[in-house]
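TL;DR need structure tokens for one chain.
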Amino acid sequence: MNKENLVIAEIAVDKEELWSSIFGSAYESHSWWLDEEFKEEGGWETIGEVTLTAWNAKNNSKEIVKSFKPDDIFDAWKKSVAEGYVHCGNYSMLDVDNADACFGDIVLQIAMYGEIVWG
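>> reply
TL;DR here they are.
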């Protein structure tokens, strides 16, 4: 993509709304997500640190466990937007009001693996 042909726009999304759209999306209904553990101050509606457990994409018989600070999750969402991902129903990743399991899954796969590796 030629950057000279792009219009760059800055957008603002409420962090709490984005957080609850990701973690309240039922992303864990996908079989590769095994566990989530929020630090005492966090939760699916409250921004905080989280540890996720998923199948290792390189070896489906082993688990991978990673801890994330909120900005890690927000950066993964920004990457999903920048790379033009859409979620179920062909919704833009900018559309946090229509977040579904695919929405949360895309963001968290990018956080966990750096890219989409499952389904």
